[in-house]
Amino acid sequence: MDMSHTALNMAANDALKRRLKRRKRLDLVMRALSFAAAVFSLVILAIVLYRVVVQSIGWLNVAFLTGKLSMFPEKAGISGVILGSLLLMVIVIPVTLILGVATAVYLEEYSRRNALRSVVQTAIANLAGVPSVIFGLLGLTVFSRFFGLGSSILAGGLTLSLLVLPLVVVSSSEAIKAVPQFLRDASYALGATKWTTTWRVVLPTAMPGILTGNILALSRAIGETAPLVVLGIPALILRSPKSLLDDFTALPVQIYYWTLDTVLTPEYAHLAAATIIVLLVMMFVLNGAAIVIRRKFARRY
Amino acid sequence: MAEKEQNNQIITENLSLHYGTLQALKQVNLAIPARQITALIGPSGCGKSTFLKTLNRMNDLIEGVRVSGKVLIDGEDIYDPAVDVPLLRKKIGMVFQKPNPFPMSIYDNIAYGPRIHGTRGRRELDEIVIRSLKDAALWPEVKDRLKDNAFDLSGGQQQRLCIARALAVEPEILLLDESTSALDPASTLKIEDLMTQLKERYTIVMVTHNMQQAARISDWTAFFMLGEVIEYNRTGQLFNQPREQQTEAYLTGRFG
């Protein structure tokens, strides 16, 4: 009786040990798989960086950064293109900041929890999911044709502003929502109106969050190609823009055209690679700024 | 002078308040004397904080609140549609349960109220800041660090800063909503001392969970239960010889 009992126990123990071994193996396999998945994106980024860096060697230099566009690869420079991208930001920053923050203030501070509010919120959430080409078509219809702005910097900037507006509204709303109610109460209790409270307490407190969201939206905007292409930016512009109403080209658009034309002139691939590096550096700087702001103004209440 | 002290500055008549379908205050009739300390006590959820917030209309900020009856302050019904609510709140300062300084400097916290009401002159603001900090017994501790962020202060100091901030707009009435419940005993005593000094010039209404505190510093005490005032009397009377059985039960700790 005892013997058989022990034997049974040992059999059960063996089965348990086998199962445990299997589970440990599975654990190792899953660990390796998830690690590989995590590393995958890193590898892709490394490959992209490696390709563009290798291709741009010898082409990315001061002459390229300060020169003007040219049909001839060895003479081409992108100062006008960089200027185009910077001028786009000059439009996008104030438009999205004012429009986006004002919308967020309305949604979070003024609107009661009514139907209009949820309709607006749903619309904004859906806008955020609309493909950028569609925004290009919107810009073409409204700004280029209806307002006659053509393919100017102003038309491009306004189109990109619309594109990233939902991002700015959502991130600003989150930042405003994170301002604790007791700060508003303190202000009201001193006899402040809603606007005074919003302007002097809520917005300053929410500003780090608002700025972070805006910068990230901006870095999305300067990388966008499709809407600008839809606006009909000419494939070759040899002059730098002089005003916001001039035609222009921007970094991602120039990368796109140069890449297209490599069939005709293979050296254009090098120019595209060098331009990609300039664009990537701009985006890293913007994202870095967002991180610095977020760290520096860590919440204290 | 003695007669003036008996002036009832705040009078409520059949004051009721509903949150949606829930009735939080039932026909409250209270007369609160000027330049004295009136304590509101009672178990959690009895409506004492809600009552306090009807006095400066902070309940307006909550959706679904309905108020009926009257609140007369200096004879004026503050729920009259013609009443300017921000101006009312300037006249009736409030200190909250948790210290809630703004995320700005000590100076700017105090100057916030005067600034939003139109005081711009640097010298004038300096005077207000110094006077308010002195009145709130905080000046010696912060006089060399007015530019520091208010969050660098201790909890007790922050609460006195909030009192100073409320005093800076020259209110006539001070409402305290359990303003010492988040503080340590030493800070609590400091604020109690401060209140007994401030009642010379201000009418003080305080909600407190701490019955010893009510007994120590208040002149009048109202005992609330389930949205009703069960008993209202001079503090000594109410604590020593409660008229109502419920009051006695609460005071002796049989519920609460």
Structure report:
The complex is a heterodimer of chains A (about 300) and B (about 260). With about 300 residues, chain A is an all-alpha fold. Chain A is built from 11 helices and no strands. Chain A has helices spanning about 1-55, 60-65, 80-110, 115-125, 130-145, 155-175, 180-190, 195-225, 225-230, 250-260, 270-295. With about 260 residues, chain B is of the alpha/beta class. Chain B has helices at about 1-5, 50-55, 85-90, 105-115, 120-135, 140, 155-165, 185-200, 210-215, 235-240, 245-250; strands spanning about 10-20, 20-35, 35-40, 65-75, 75, 90-95, 175, 205, 220-225, 230-235. The termini of chain B are far apart. Mean pLDDT of chain B is about 90; it is low at about 1-5. The chains are: A mainly alpha (about 300), B alpha/beta (about 260).
Core attributes:
heterodimer; A: 301 residues; mainly alpha; B: 256 residues; alpha/beta; 11 helices; 26% strand; globular; disordered N terminus
Short structural description:
Helices cover 76% and strands 0% of the residues of chain A. Chain A is an all-alpha fold and 301 residues long. The mean pLDDT of chain A is 89.
